[in-house]
Every structure is written in C-alpha cells, then in structure tokens.
Amino acid sequence: MAEKVLNLNNFKSSGVYTVEIDQSQGLALPLTTGRLIIGSSRKGPFNTVVLINDVRTLNAVYGDRDTQLEKQGSYFHRTIEVALREGPVFAMNVLPLDTDTDVVANLDKAYFTTYNTESSSNNEDSAPYQYPLVEFFNKRKLWFADDESLNKSKNLALGDDYILNPSSFGNASIASNKILSFANTGNTNMTVWVRKATVTGFDVTAKEWYASFGESIDFPNFVSADDFISDYFVEVIIVDGDWSNNIRLSKDALFSQFFDESGLIDSQVPSFLALQEVQAIARVTGCLIPEFKDQSGTIASVDSLVNRLFATTGLLCALDADKLDLIDLEDDNFSDINMETHRVDTIGHGYDELDSDDVYSIDNGGFEPSGTVADSTPLIDILSYSKPGDKELIYKIDLSLPENDFTGATTKTYCTCNQRRNNQESGCNNCEMNAMGYVGAIISIIAGCLGLIWPKQVSRTIGLQIPGRLGQSEVRATYGGLFIGAGLAVTLIASSDAALVLGAAWAGAFIARAISFVIDKSRTKENVAGLVIEGVMAALLILA
Fold it and tell me: How much is the pTM?
C-alpha cells in the first residue's frame, strides 16, 4: 500500500497531533481459493467438492441437519452453517466406497439406463442396468462425476469392450448404441422421463443455423442439413420416487387419469407434476447435439444442463459423442447393431424401417376380414414413449408377472380402429368420426334449433296443427330438444359408433316416409323434399 501523505495545511497552529491511518486491506478470494470443510452426509454428492454460497444451497445439496450422524459425532451441516456466516465455503462429503476391482462382487453399484433416439429402433427391455459406482467418476485428483466415465461404463457394461477389441466399437451390441444415458449416483429412487420438447427460436434448418455462426462452429456429421434444429430438443423430467409400474398406476384410483399401460400420458404431464403427492426434482429442456450452443453462445446441450444440477440431484447425464461421430448419413441400410446406420431421429423419419426384421412386434397381427394373417403391429419405443405403431393393437399382458394377475383373464385387448375395423379378433369398432359425421351432427342441431325457437312455423311446414300450448311444447321437445341433444352428443363423442346411431334414426325416418309414399299416396313436393333430406342425413352419418 502506498505511504500516506500528510497535508500540513490541515494543521493551523503549532502543537502535537495524533494521526490515525488505516492500512488494513479487504481480501477477495477467488472461487479457486477458499475454506474447505470435510465431513459426512447421507444426502448429496460424495468425494467431490461443492461450492456452498448460503444455507439454502446447503439444504438443497446436503439436506437438513442429520441428527443420527450428529449422535455419532459428525457435525458436517452445523460446521458449514457456522462457516457461512463469514462467506461462501467449499464442502466435500466423504464416503468410503469399495474400489477393489479385483473383487467385483463387493463393489458398490449404481443404476444407469439408456434411451433410444432412433425411430427405427427400440429401447432395451432389461434396463436399467447396474455398474460399479466408482466407474462413473473421474478419480484422477478429487472425484467428480464425469459424462465421459458414464459413456465408458455404459459401453463396457453393455458388451462394447472397445478397450480390448477396438474394432468392435459401434457394432458390438444394440443396447450400447443408445447415445443418451442417465446414471443415478445418489441413494434415493428417482424416475426420469424424456420426451420431445416444444421450443421456440429453433425452427430453422441445421444448414441455416450453423451458417449463422460462420466457421467458428463445426457442422455435426450426424445432422442432416435439412433437419430442423428444434427436432433435436428434448425435455427431461425428474421426479422423486419410483413411478415405473405403468400397469399398477393405470389402474390406480387417483393416478389412472395420468397413466396408461404404456406410461405417463404426455398431455397430462403438467397436471401430474402439480399433484401434492408428486415431488418434481427438475425439468430440463436441452438439445441432443453435444456441446450445442444457442445464439447467445450459451451451452444448451441436454447433458450439460442436467449435469449442472448434479450437486442437488445426484443424476448424471451423457451423450455418447464418440458413437455419434460414427454415423454415416449416406448409409441407408439400417441395422440396430451398426452405429454407422443410426440417426438421431425423434420424429419418425425412419418409421418405415421399424420392424423390418419382425424384431419389435407387439402383437401377432391377428386376421384380416378375408381370413388372411395381418402384419404384426410394430412398437414405437423411443425416448420415454412406448406406443403401438398402428391404430389397431391386440395387446397381450404377460400373466407371469404378479402385477398382471387378472382373475379369469387370459388376454386384455386395447384397440382403436383402422381399415381392419371388421377384424373379429380385435373386437374393435369404435373408430374416429370423419368430417361427414360432423356435418350431419351440425345439420341435426340446426334442425333442432328451428323446432325449438319457431314451433308454429315448423309445424305448418310439415303439415301439423298445434292444439294450444301443449302442442307447442311437444313440437319444441320432439322436433327441437331431441335433435339438438342427439347432434350435440355425436359432436362431443366424435366416434363413428355415435354417428351410426343418429344415422340409423334418420334412416328410419327415410324408410317410414318411403312406406308412406306407397300406403298413403302422399307424393307431395314437401314429402319428396323430406325424403331427400332424411336420405342425405342418413348417408352422411352412417358413412362417418
């Protein structure tokens, strides 16, 4: 510090003066320098250093004070609370783990899973997998969870031993070729859903997007120039607890409105997360392109965004960039086991290739009306979606599983209709109504409104005489409310079966009027007009 210079003009007369000079300095420690507190906690990341800025961060990462650990003499949480009075601190939760790889059976293990991002492929039924916990961390100095370690562990655990057999990398196993992975390194259960994200600002082609950056960013080899960047965005939903039993949840009195047999209903996600019984840990929207940056230069890849929350979630995410580099967009011969033929395709470009080898069939196909065997229904199993690739499905539940033990049941059928609506095996007749059904329903409603509002005029038109107020009420009810109610029901239900019922009513009126032509000889122009209207209405609704 520079020497203090005295200004003698401040002293007006001779004498002895005492001058106090403050030469103390305030030190601002960089984030790389600070106090480190080491202890034990049953919650939060372990063997890794975490920056704690305040008590709220402390509780989010390591939870509240642990009285059980304090009884054993560990005051990790209290120590951090005291230290925070003077400023931010670094904390490290020390956890002894089995690291002796010579005794693999004794190693502490963690679960990981992979997600399919290829519409021509499927997820693996055997997931999640277990692997030694230590293998998900970079242990060169202080431990830290590492996405590269997760990719390495994923490949080795699923049969792609590229270390001993480098030439097998990318063509060793189907499961190891899934490029999106998650590992739960914590000690609590959590459920992760991944779905296609709806984003704004990215509805441009990859060619246009990367051209805006010039040559500062390399164009990914696995991305087609005509793909929309928005098609590579996914949303990751992390919820506390185990929500994986879809069969049980689909039959639960409360949760059946949010789950079906294939999983969480996409449209019900906001309502589900709003439940008091559900503890949402995090929701992240990111890109499946590694190290992807938005226009501001901020990293927006899904693995980076999820891993930023690792301190509070214990969830590690990885995109296998090395596997993605193997993709050859000029290779059109898709094979699950050959990474060169894969694509990052979450919107169905490769749907035509799905089940080309009858590998991912979800039913036996049933029979066409002619009696011939129909093609089996392919299963679309991508990200967290698991749906039949056809509108018609014969869905058979495995009765060997305890949760599927239905008394007296051998199969359970879920189906909607397609061109095979007459398939007796599927028993599926409730098809969606087409535009003709809506036209017929709306005309029925309009006819009902005329009868309801103008009963006298309608009665004169059809040749009826209204005997007082009772007659008016009858016209309003029969020619008004009845038609309005039937038309509204068809419009709201929007099924061909509902349209068929209303069409049958119009057809009955048509047949009865035709009979009247013969018996009553009532061939007036009004009757002809009524016959035409009823015939047209019947045809519209029956053909719906």
Answer: 0.60
